[in-house]
Write the structure tokens for this entry.
Amino acid sequence: MARKQKTVSLNKGRDKGKRFIITEMSAAQIDRWSLRLLNGVYGSGKGAELSQIGSAAAMAQILFAAAGKGNEENTSVDKDNASKAVEAMFMDMLIKADPAVSEVLQAELMAQVQIMPSPSDPTVTRALEEDDIEELSSISKIRAEAIKINIDFFTDAAE
């Protein structure tokens, strides 16, 4: 089965109209990435906060399990809220991790991103270069989308 991909279009500021394709990491790669993230938080001296992270992860799994049950109307809302909680948890861990570890992990996330440089031909893509993104908010949005596509296993496990 092919890896998931998501197209992200930016519509603000200097990055307005730019499109990017984000491809999920392999299962082995995201497993290693996640473990290094946890090690980076623990190694930063913020290991006491791991119990809070673990509690957030457990809560997210409970939310996902609950989202898989009940009526159809609430299911998508519950999964969306749980996805946001897990995304926030991963972003929080990236912030709390040792800066050297966090920088490498963020670079690996961004390595999963390609730009579509030609608005008229979406089949043309290339590796992302540092100057391709001009707004800090755009970097944050793309990073968040890269995390989302790689943490879908939480959602998948609940179904």
Summary: The two ends are 18 Å apart (CA to CA). Residues 5-158 form one domain.
